Amino acid sequence: MGELKLMKGNEALAEAAIRYGADAYFGYPITPQSEVIEYLSEQNPYERTGMVVLQAESELAAINMVYGAGASGKRVMTSSSSPGVCLKQEGLAYIAGAEIPCVFADVVRGGPGLGTIQPSQADYFQNTKGGGNGDYRNLVLAPASVQEMCDFVALGFDLAFKYRMAACILSDGAIGQMMEKVVLPDQKPRMTDEEIKAKYPWAINGRKNGTQHRIITSLDLDSAKMEEHNIHLQKKYKEIEENEVRYEMINCDDAEYVFVAYGSSARIAQKSVQLGREAGLKVGLLRPITLWPYPTKAIDALIKKGVKGFLSVELSCGQMIEDVRLACNGRVKAEHFGRVGGIIHTPEEVLEAMKKQIIGE
Amino acid sequence: MASFKGAISVDTERCKGCGVCVVNCPMGVISLAKEVNGKGYNYAYMAEPDKCIGCASCGIVCPDGVISVYKAKL
Amino acid sequence: MTVQDIIKPENLVYQKSKLLTNKPFHYCPGCGHGTVHRIIAEVLEELGVGDKTIGVSPVGCAVMAYDYFDVDFAEAAHGRAPAVATGIKRVWPDKVVFSYQGDGDLAAIGTCETIHTCNRGENITMIFVNNGIYGMTGGQMAPTTLEGMKTATTPYGRKATLPAGAGFDGIPNNGYPLHITELIARLPGTKYVTRQAVYDPAHVRNAKKAIKKAFENQINGKSGVNFVEIVSNCNSNWKMEPVAANKWLVENMLPEYPLGDIKVDGKLVEK
Ligand SMILES: Cc1ncc(C[n+]2csc(CCOP(=O)(O)OP(=O)(O)O)c2C)c(N)n1
Ligand code: SF4
Ligand code: SF4
Ligand code: SF4
Ligand SMILES: [Mg+2]
Question: What's the 3-state SS for chain C?
């Protein structure tokens, strides 16, 4: 049985990495996620499991350390917050091109630029639409609780290795900093070098005598091969879109109007649903858990069931709304409501926005 | 008289005709051919095979590793 | 004795390393990258570590070094090879890990990674090919470009400063040739730091010895970065014939970048 503990979201993420049997963490401090590397340093995971923790000289260096260690078949993780994730985009594009599994967390703060250290969800574009160069995707998981900060580490690693790509845990300052009870998983052993060699034949960790050397690269000067590689990546992404969409529906069975919200916004929108229901409004909540792949089909199904409008509730000036609108494809009304700059919307104003922007007086 | 005699074999198709071996052969053995290989390079060859002492200088300095050096006791 | 009599397997005294694949190098004729590849492969073969070596190639002309070495290889983003090598070595401390970079890669865009990898004292080998120019992108100025040297971005020659103006004793311009190797030699994290060349057989032999030491240190568990700079040519972008380029290298590059060990066993060599 798992161990019950009161923890910050950032600490739960760090502890989950140790317990998952991660081999390494490379990171660079930035608020509001410095607790991740602080907790790891304090826990001395090298003693606990043999996990390496290294404070890099920059996020650029950290993600490229992830690139190297991930390319060698080990389970590697990094974390940062918005401006730091910008710096990681170079490495993430290479990771996508070279098909290296890894997990990274973005505990989002406000922007643009240095912005604010307060919570925000304005990195939706950065993480779900790419951010680095080229046609690629990252898996994006959006935790809405400290428990999910913990659980999505394992899910992220499993998916990252299943598809050989980066999995992003897209959190925000609120989830990262809040304390909640969390059931921690039991400690898993780290994979042995032999297990890694047997399980991941693509990994570069010293070729076997008499066998071909292995190459990890994102480059091919042959246009035909490069196109083939891109087609291969797109096929993989398609498969993920078919199989890995995750979401939660709350009070959607009879809903006429639906909030769409993830992470901390989803927690608030859930309250708004409750308030709306008390006031006799048939409102529900769709909480995407995977932001890429996006639950487009879930929105489509809701429209077919009679939902007349959606309100995308975000701590941003309107980013996810684009995906909601793509899913709606003009059939029903879809609007955005959000607060920014570190201000978190109240359940009341979110409900008010639904009434004003979608339902109409 | 040297008690050793050398010879080189150049992978002429892979030689790029850079001439680095030519100037680094202490015995003046190597020249670039008037003819070109499939890539259009004037490849290196032993113009004065009798002079080769098998010192391997050419092999060691060839950027493309296309020279093998042999040395036999007389 | 005829040539045919001599060219027999039992008489072989030199051939290219078996740790190189059969793929012909894509480098320009006479380019030092090929020579450096060759001697690295020879060293790894002689040390018998082909099975446990992991290389990291740069962005630069040597980007596809992975095609030539018959050892596992990762291709890094521009300048990040030391970080990639760090990542690998930290999780596979028993493997032999080396990075291979040009001057733009190691001493411009990757300076931060270079200095911090050296400062952490990662137990890796770093090979640095200094040809004083950006080879791959067509001959632009590198941090190591000599003063006065013409490149695509310094068509009138690199000028560290522009002539004095009113109130200035010189207006900052392209800056000075960067001696990154001397810089990192000052860091306690570096074990062995040396500058070599490969333009003639004697220097190739020296360079190979240095590279061997740089790998032996790593294999023997001596902690710290083992750093070998090779002053090399980029005859294409210097716009010279290969042989002339090597002569120019001796006359112009070596006075600025003198050859020899800079730090041995963690101690700076007294000059
Ligand atoms: C981020 C990024 N910026 C710029 C480039 C373009 N670029 C490729 S190689 C290179 C310079 C290479 O010079 P150097 O490191 O000296 O290697 P050389 O080709 O001379 O061996 C540059 C600027 C790139 N690939 N990536
Ligand atoms: S050095 Fe090598 S490539 Fe150059 S001419 Fe001689 S054999 Fe040919
Ligand atoms: S082995 Fe020595 S003497 Fe013979 S060709 Fe090569 S460099 Fe010249
Ligand atoms: S461009 Fe310069 S560095 Fe690149 S292969 Fe040609 S000679 Fe070598
Ligand atoms: Mg260069």
Answer: CCHHHHCCHHHEEECCCCCECCCCCCCCCCCHHHHHHHHHHHHHHHHCCHHHEEEEECCCHHHHHHHCECCEEEECCCCCHHHHHHHHHHHCCCCEEEEEEEHHHHHHHCHHHHHHHHHHCCCCEEEEEECCEECCCCCEECCCCCCCCCECCECCCCCCEECCCCCCCCEECCCCCCCHHHHHHCCCCEEEEEEEECCCHHHHHHHHHHHHHHHHHHHCCCCCEEEEEEECCCHHHHCCCHHHHHHHHHHHHHHHCCCEEEEECCEECCC
